[in-house]
Design goal:
heterodimer; A: alpha/beta; Rossmann fold; six-stranded mixed beta sheet; three-stranded antiparallel beta sheet; 10 helices; 9 strands; B: ABC transporter involved in vitamin B12 uptake, BtuC; globular
């Protein structure tokens, strides 16, 4: 089965303004990649394109034989309503819907799988706890448990360590390492370059356009990072759309900063 | 004491009213709980006004029959739900303001059409007459209630997922919009079914008030659904008794009872109530 994901000359826009500009990259099966770049560089948009949530303007995302359910996505934290009356085990069991479908009854074995996944992320006795009572770090652990039961060969993580403490970060990193050793493809949007250097063998530096892609040490060189900053600033100052729309463009850029 | 409870139901119209309200109490509140969770409480307002032009048009073309008006209301309600849903999803405007706009138009259109039509009492359409529920209306209410409960059971899982984490549903290839529209269809069915008993304004009351109140009595989603049903049943029974003994219009009596339970929940319910907050505060400050 072909489970390679590749991006071919991908351009994705928000209201006609490019957020990702002519990016090509290949993610080999079993690779562990960090996507880094300045704010508003299109990292989240690229990830959403990979997950099939955002329709590219031009170019394509090639997913080989992968189905939608075989690409698991961890969205940015803080998008879920903490007052929703649902407990941790049910959140994890939502991850089983991909295989159970909308209607098949879920039984004791499904509950056991969800509880085992919760135990794996260090939340042994949390099955019946409502999500409203969780800290940000615990919530992130629950969402990782949901990724575990999805058993997807490809995992896309959008800023998985935002707002979590160092211990949670270490535990979740260990889980990502484990996925890597199981031969799954993991692609994560990250900010902490030291963390990327320590744990991610491959790195994609993005500033709307591709700045560098390859082994982490080479990609995160002083020169490349400088270039990424300059490209990002050039996108702000020298609008890629015509002068008349420059007002619109700065507005759009502002929005992007907030989104990614 | 028992006489006090049973005497009113010696009358056939009281028994029919009770059966109708029981059916509505089982079907409406679960939908209301989901509406609250999806932050769509306002949608119920839109629908209750939205079916009004349909009722008037139904009467215009089919006469004052229950079925013609019900069908008209159903079609109008579905159109309003579809338009409001599309407007909210297709444009980036604020959903609540669009819903408010939609229901004002629907109400004005409905009143204009009703006033044009001879023989329809606007007050009766808006507020209904629980005690005048006919056997035909009762069959419709019971049928719709059963259908609605079954339908909700079928779409429950994807609907809850779409309410909690729509991005995740899309990421596994689900279509949130599909479940959303199926759900709105059930809401429309229930509002239309309730109009003959409670009127368009009040039928939404028996759907929403118990659902809003349930948040103060239960933590889990299934617990809230059960609590909302129980509150609606209690409000129906108590409301009918109040209307019988206090000689009050029965629809408003039922809704006021449900409103009373809600206020009780806000003040002294076990969850998220004023009392719970005050008690916790005094513990923290020691």
């Amino acid at each position: 089965m072909n489970i390679k994901i590749s991006v071919v000359n991908l351009t994705a826009t928000y209201q006609r303004h490019p957020a990702v500009h002519h990016v090509s990259a290949e993610f080999a099966p079993g690779s562990l990649t960090a996507i880094v770049g300045p704010n508003g560089a299109g990292k989240t948009t690229l990830l959403r394109c990979l997950a099939g949530l955002h329709q590219p303007e031009s170019g394509a995302v090639l997913r080989g034989d992968l189905t939608r359910q075989q690409i698991a996505l961890l969205p940015q934290a803080g998008t879920l309503d903490p007052s929703f009356p649902i407990d941790c085990r049910d959140v994890v069991m939502l991850g089983l819907i991909g295989e159970a479908g909308a209607f098949r009854a879920m039984g004791a074995s499904d509950r056991a799988r969800a509880e085992a996944a919760l135990a794996q992320v260090g939340l042994h006795d949390f099955a019946r706890r409502p999500v409203g009572s969780l800290s940000a770090g615990q919530m992130q652990r629950v969402l990782f448990a949901r990724l575990i039961v999805q058993e997807a060969p490809v995992l896309l993580l959008d800023e998985p360590f935002n707002a979590v403490d160092t211990r949670t970060e270490a535990d979740l990193l260990a889980l990502i390492d484990q996925w890597h050793h199981q031969g799954r493809t993991v692609i994560a949007v990250l900010h902490d370059l030291d963390l990327v250097r320590a744990h991610f063998p491959q790195c994609l530096l993005l500033a709307r356009q591709l700045v560098a892609f390859g082994p982490t040490e080479a990609v995160l060189s002083q020169e490349n990072r400088q270039r990424a900053r300059m490209v990002a600033e050039a996108w702000v100052g020298d609008a890629p759309v015509c002068e008349a729309e420059s007002d619109l463009h700065s507005h759009e850029h502002h929005e992007h900063g907030a989104h990614s | 004491m028992l006489h006090f409870l049973f005497d009113p139901f010696a009358f056939a119209f009281m028994r029919r009213a009770l059966v109708g309200c029981v059916a509505l109490s089982l079907a409406g509140p679960p939908l209301g709980v989901i509406l609250v969770l999806r932050r769509m409480s306002l949608m119920s307002d839109v629908l209750q006004h939205g079916i009004l032009p349909g009722l008037a048009l139904g009467a215009m073309f089919g006469g004052l029959s229950f079925w013609a008006m019900g069908l008209g209301g159903l079609i109008a309600g579905l159109c309003v739900a579809l338009l409001a849903g599309l407007a909210a999803r297709a444009t980036s405007g604020r959903e609540d303001s669009q819903l408010a706009g939609a229901y004002l138009i629907a109400l004005a259109l409905g009143v204009a059409l009703v006033s044009h039509q001879q023989g329809i009492d606007l007050a009766e359409l808006l507020f209904g007459s629980v005690l005048g529920v006919t056997n035909v209306a009762l069959q419709l209410i019971a049928g719709v209630a059963s259908l609605s409960l079954l339908g909700l059971a079928v779409i429950w899982r994807p609907l809850v997922l779409d309410s909690f984490d729509p991005v995740f549903l899309r990421s596994i290839g689900g279509h949130g919009g599909l479940w959303h529209m199926a759900f709105l269809g059930l809401v429309v069915l229930c509002v239309v079914a309730g109009y003959s008993a409670l009127g368009t304004l009040m039928s939404v009351g028996l759907m929403m008030l118990p659902a809003i109140a349930a948040r103060h009595f239960a933590v889990s989603l299934s617990g809230q659904v059960r609590a909302a049903m129980a509150i609606a049943l209690l409000a129906s029974l108590l409301g009918l008794l109040v209307s019988y003994y206090a000689d009050m219009a029965s629809g408003p009596a039922i809704i006021l009872t449900a409103g009373g339970v809600w206020l009780l929940g806000v003040l002294a319910g076990p969850q998220q109530s004023v009392r719970a907050r005050l008690v916790r505060k005094s513990h923290l400050t020691g």
